Amino acid sequence: MSLIEVNHIHKNFKIAEPTKGVMGSLKSLLKKKYYTKVAVEDISFQIDRGEVVGYIGPNGAGKSTTIKILSGVLTPTSGSVTVNGIIPYKNRKENALKIGVVFGQRSQLYWDLPVADTFELYQKLYNIKDDLYNTNRRYFTDILEMHDFINQPVRQLSLGQKMKANLALSMLHDPDILYLDEPTIGLDVMSKKTLRTCIADINRDKQTTIILTTHDMDDIEAVCGRLILIDKGRKLFDGSLTDFEEHYKNGYLVRMQFERNLPVWGAEKNYKLLEQSENNFVISVDKCLTTREALTYLINRYNPDNIYIEKEKIEDIIQKIFTN
Ligand SMILES: Nc1ncnc2c1ncn2[C@@H]1O[C@H](COP(=O)(O)OP(=O)(O)OP(=O)(O)O)[C@@H](O)[C@H]1O
After folding, report:
1. pTM confidence score
2. Which of 38, 137, 194, 253 has CB atoms 3.0–4.6 Å from 310's, for a disulfide?
């Protein structure tokens, strides 16, 4: 049995129909009309201990709803979930002791208290033994570089510092599973990088199983070994990043650089001009051609000064899936 077992879950929300005008509002007081919004439709997956899984999809795909079901906040309309052998939405307290949750848009810190004080409150709340608390506090203060601000009130902290403190807080009780919902949202490049490194460190040092939802594909490429892609509540793909690229990639990119004026690009079968700048062509090559065939052809035909194969970013592949 896997650590996380999700079997054919569905989640429907009952939503009140909007009313028009005063009469409409009055009528709705007597008899409200509802419609059903399907947020998650027949999703199944298993996650083993120690995996880091990226759970991705466009806005409204059902990512947060799934995470809320896994963390016990929501009950599925049908289907079943077990996490660590328990049903999270039926045994919320027991489940809460074994998981850490970070919602990028929501802080668990007390605005007026120094971070260190919230940590102490959390120790009492979760009944964390002194030894474990002190070890974890030291470990997270070090890897998340929190020494400079741990004694400052939360209201004085930057977004990046708050996110680090939230991550540390959610891990103080040594949970088996960490749910991260958009942890790098709104952060600058350096803070994103630090956070990604720390997520990978936590997984390596503590064998924490991590499920990460994000719109930033650099997060996925940096830390996830596996990707689950969903859209409109349904699962589209579940597998390794390499399999994902193999499955969805239609070809690869070639960049040609010229130290003279750009030659005229001809309409070429199996080659598509994606981008043209002052002295560059970026070409998408169909996967029916080997890189050797493509490079030989392009060098003979256009005689570039430099030519490179470029890796297609996961972000671009996903964008193609949802725009095609
Ligand atoms: N409490 C709720 N009541 C009604 N509808 C909801 C509720 N929560 C989510 N939904 C709807 O369910 C669908 C899935 O929402 P969800 O928040 O899971 O998507 P998401 O993939 O996390 O999106 P995003 O990337 O924008 O955060 C959306 O259409 C949303 O409007």
Report:
1. 0.83
2. 253
Ligand 1 centre to CA of 286 (Å) is 37
Token duo for residue 274 = 């994606």
pLDDT tens, position by position, 268-302: 889 988 889 889 999 988 888 999 999 999 999 99
If asked whether residues 146 and 79 sit together in one domain, one would say yes
CA distances in angstroms from 262 to 258, 294, 305, 321, listed in the order given:
6, 19, 11, 31
**310 lies in the same domain as 264:** yes
Of 246, 274, 295, the residue that ends a domain is 246
How far, in Å, CA of 74 to CA of 184, rounded?
A: 24
Residue ranges with strand state E in 74-176: 78-83, 99-103
Residues 103 and 142 grouped into a single domain: yes
Q: Considering 188, 222, 246, which residue would you say is the last residue of a domain?
A: 246
pLDDT in tens, 136-164: 999 999 999 999 999 999 999 999 999 99
Which one of 11, 14, 43, 63 would you pick to mutate in the ligand 1 pocket, going by the greatest count of ligand atoms within 8 A of its CB? Answer: 63
**Does the C-beta of 57 come closer than 6 Å to ligand 1?**
yes
Q: Verify that 172 and 309 share a domain, yes or no.
A: no
pLDDT one-digit tens code per residue, 229-240: 999 999 999 999
Whether 110 and 256 map to the same domain: the answer is no
Same domain for 298 and 258, yes or no, is yes
209 and 262 in a single domain? The answer is no
Stretch 178-204: mean pLDDT: 92
Collapsing DSSP to helix, strand or coil, 107 comes out as coil
pLDDT tens profile 53-88: 999 998 899 999 999 999 999 999 999 999 999 999
Residue nearest to atom 2 of ligand 1 (CA): 13
Whole-complex ipTM = 0.97
Residues 6 or more apart in contact with residue 268 via CB below 8 angstroms: none
DSSP state of 3: S
Instruction: Point out the ligand 1 atom lying closest to the alpha carbon of residue 67.
Output: 18
Backbone angles phi, psi at 216, to 5 degrees: -100, 105
Full domain range(s) for residue 311: 250-323
Same domain, 316 and 177: no
